């Protein structure tokens, strides 16, 4: 759930999708659930206080930056979908592309 969705407003736009994509990218890169084994209410509290999941397991700086941008508390600061695609394409063309940063069993 994006932070703005917890404010009892009807929000469901591109910015929400970008936030959710950030959560998916985080889990893909680290093999971890972004806010640990917690419920949505506690995860939302962590978000509201500015706590972001640790990115120490993400070795590529471009991916770290992308995840942080996608998880921005301010929906207006999240990247456009075209920018995300461009970043992911450039990461995919890097020398380390296809090499797993972590092994998830």
From TrEMBL:
Residues 1-91 form the Protein kinase domain. Pfam families: Pkinase (PF00069). Gene3D superfamilies: Transferase(Phosphotransferase) domain 1 (1.10.510.10). It comes from Blattamonas nauphoetae. It comes from the Eukaryota. This is Protein kinase domain-containing protein.
């Amino acid at each position: 759930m994006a932070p703005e969705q917890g404010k009892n407003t009807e929000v469901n736009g591109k910015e929400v999708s970008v936030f959710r994509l950030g959560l998916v990218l985080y889990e893909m890169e680290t093999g971890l659930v972004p806010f640990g084994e917690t419920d949505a209410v506690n995860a939302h509290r962590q978000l509201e206080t500015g706590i972001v999941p640790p990115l120490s397991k993400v070795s590529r700086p471009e991916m770290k930056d992308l995840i942080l941008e996608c998880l921005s508390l301010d929906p207006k600061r999240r990247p456009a979908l075209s920018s995300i695609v461009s970043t992911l394409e450039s990461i995919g063309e890097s020398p380390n592309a296809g090499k797993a940063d972590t092994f998830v069993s």
